[in-house]
Structure prediction request, 299 residues.
Amino acid sequence: RWNMDARLPPCDIFHATDHLLPPLKRARSVFTIHDLIFQFFPEYHLPLNRWYLGLTLPKFMQRADAIIAVSECTRRDASQRMNIPAEKIRVIYEGVHPSFRPIADRATLERVRATYRLPAHFILFFSTIEPRKNLITLFDAYAALLKQNTDVPPLVVAGRKGWLYQETLQRAQTLGIGARVQWADWIAGDDVPALLNLADVFVYPSLYEGFGLPPLEALACGTPVICSNASSLPEVVGDAGILFEPRDTAALTRALARVLTDDALRQTLRAKGLRQAAPFTWERAARETLAVYDAVMRK
Prediction:
């Protein structure tokens, strides 16, 4: 049997974190599964991605001595879709970097505002632009909100284009809201916490996530969050944000109107968000990962 041991530095455990686990004879192996998006929304994946993941993921997970899932949702999906025993999978949530926190320094905030030409008030979406992120529903809700009240903040869309994004971009023009949507494109990593702090509200309408780091980072910054209730997102956001069915445009429109007009609600969401995000640390994730390594070595 072909193996990769000779091509790797000597090790006791090989941890595959990016959907690639080579065959190994001497080292034990741990495999992290982030999501099974290609199974639930194949139309939103490129054909080559679907082919590769469909062929390799079942083999990698069967081969691994232990599996880490980044959410209970991903654990359930892997167990059901890949026929993996649930007891082989350990859930370890991702963490938030300490830089994601409320920022009081006005100079930092205004520097980021000036760098990306951000308005004084704005609704924020921040993630890769691809169909699964469901920006179309956000555009529809924003257009409906403008019909109710033209005095609403602009919508800032931050993040680079991923794939199959053309229909998403066209939707804003078709709805006639192009002048109210600001495309911020790439944001430097060090500037993201300030970007989240500056937003009046963060909206994440995704159809499916394996975990959902952007809304968690927004919670950690004290920014009010409106988030889809799909897949793992309720695990991450809890009751600290306003959740909605991801294709329910009317529900998202109502949520936006509430958060933008209710100061008390925004303060409540801010406090809840900080509490919700606090346990999600990379130190905790590291300790739990080390426990998986110890268990694998004891087998």
Observations:
- Strands lie at 13-16, 28-33, 66-69, 89-91, 123-126, 155-158, 181-185, 201-204, 225-228, 242-244.
- The longest strand covers residues 28-33.
- The chain has twelve helices and ten strands.
- The mean pLDDT is 93.
